[in-house]
Design brief:
The protein is of the alpha/beta class. It contains seven helices and five strands. A five-stranded parallel β-sheet has the order 2-3-1-4-5, with helices on both faces. The longest helix is centred in the last third of the chain and has 23 residues.
Length: about 170
């Protein structure tokens, strides 16, 4: 199973994703690396991406999920809308870790990282687009106003519990 670390900009997807992969001893990828250059240019210019812009990026991320096969892995990907998450689920078994936090905290985090291509001006549009995990979506929400290690520890515990539940269902227990 692949863990998709989701959330708006500044929520800590990369930091948590890297630590989560290390803790679980699995592969890690940042879906930002799968964006075509034109998408990065648009975001850097403060232009929100459209669903059409995101389509090839989501397909590339889903391909990475397919490549993980039975090995599993962790990928950081904003996954703001359910239909985006539906594309990622076409890649195989996916568990979503939604990193959630208040806009004031995430604004401060974005302001502290001026070298990132995602400008603060797009945070509001990301919050507007965000569709939290809904009924039938497999995952867990963790507040990011706690220290990173606490977030990772909670995520690992929730993931292991979910995985145990899945394995029990598959075994017919």
């Amino acid at each position: 199973m692949v863990i998709v670390v989701m959330g708006v900009s500044g929520s800590g997807k990369t930091t948590v994703g890297v630590r989560l992969a290390e803790r679980l001893g699995t592969d890690y990828a940042d879906a930002d690396a799968f964006h075509p250059p034109v998408n990065v240019e648009k975001m850097a210019a403060g232009i929100p991406l459209t669903d059409d812009d995101r389509a090839p990026w989501l397909r590339s991320t889903a391909s990475w999920i397919v490549e993980r096969g039975e090995r599993g892995g962790v990928v950081s990907c904003s996954s703001l809308k359910r239909r985006y998450r539906d594309v990622l689920r076409t890649g195989g078994d996916v568990w979503f870790l939604h990193l959630a936090g208040p806009m004031a905290l995430l604004t401060a985090r974005i302001q502290a990282r001026p070298d990132h291509f995602m400008p603060l001006s797009l945070l509001e549009s990301q919050f507007a687009d965000l569709e939290p995990l809904g009924a039938g979506e497999f995952g867990h929400v963790v507040p990011v106003n706690n220290p990173v290690e606490s977030v990772v520890t909670e995520a690992v515990a929730a993931y292991r519990l979910a995985r145990t539940d899945i394995e029990a269902r598959r075994a017919g227990r």
